């Protein structure tokens, strides 16, 4: 009777045990099946920047604040009129962007900006760079 009971337990265990795929020697790998990475996002990081343009009518300076840096460009009389036109201001802003890093730049302290214009000094608490056109 014990022998019959032991055989029943062994056969029940064998019937419920399924071999793990790594133990299954009859399993073949389909060579056409490829494994893709589990993520599809790029390793590139997003970047952002914010710029603000301000025309100071008192000094005829166009100011560009790019993140925490300020750049000033003195406008001539023709540009000072153009700045009030939608197409004209965009033209001036683009020319200013092109000058950054390409023009001679003179550092201005916050005190320099205070003496120039309270509005510019408020916009640029860290001082700025005067862009000199070549």
Please give the structural blueprint:
Elements: H1 2-16, E1 51-56, E2 61-66, E3 69-74, H2 77-82, H3 86-99, E4 104-108, H4 110-116, H5 118-123, E5 128-132
Core attributes:
5 helices, elongated, 134 residues, 5 strands
Query: How would the global form be characterised?
Result: elongated
As an assembly, this protein is: single chain
Estimated radius of gyration: 36 Å
Largest sheet: 5 strands, mixed
The helix-strand sequence is: HEEEHHEHHE
**What is the helix tally?**
5
Helix content: 25-40%
Structural class: alpha+beta
As a percent range, the share of strand residues is 15-25%
What's the N-to-C terminus distance?
Answer: 107 Å
Give the overall pLDDT as a whole number: 82
**Low-pLDDT residue intervals, each spanning 5 or more residues:** 1-10
- Strand order across the biggest sheet? 1-2-3-5-4
Tell how many strands the DSSP assignment holds: 5
Biased composition (Basic and acidic residues): 21-33
Region (Disordered): 16-47
Describe this structure in words.
This protein has 134 residues and is of the alpha+beta class. The protein has a domain at 51-132. 36% of the residues lie in helices and 21% in strands. It contains five helices and five strands. It has helices spanning 2-16, 77-82, 86-99, 110-116, 118-123; strands at 51-56, 61-66, 69-74, 104-108, 128-132. A five-stranded mixed beta sheet has the order 1-2-3-5-4. The longest helix is centred in the first third of the chain and has 15 residues, at 2-16. The radius of gyration is 36 Å and the shape is elongated. Residues 16-47 are annotated as: Disordered. Residues 21-33 have a biased composition (Basic and acidic residues).
């Amino acid at each position: 009777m014990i022998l019959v009971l032991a055989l029943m337990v062994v056969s029940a265990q064998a019937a419920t045990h399924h071999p793990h795929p790594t133990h299954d020697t009859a399993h073949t790998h389909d060579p056409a099946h490829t494994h893709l990475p589990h993520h599809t996002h790029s390793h590139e990081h997003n970047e952002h920047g914010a710029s603000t343009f301000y025309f100071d009518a008192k000094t005829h300076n166009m100011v560009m604040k790019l993140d925490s840096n300020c750049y000033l460009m003195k406008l001539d009389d023709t540009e000072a009129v153009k700045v009030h036109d939608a197409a004209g201001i965009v033209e001036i802003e683009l020319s200013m962007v092109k000058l950054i890093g390409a023009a001679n730049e003179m550092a201005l302290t916050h005190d320099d900006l205070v003496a120039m214009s309270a509005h510019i000094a408020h916009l640029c608490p860290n001082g700025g760079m005067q862009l000199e056109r070549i």
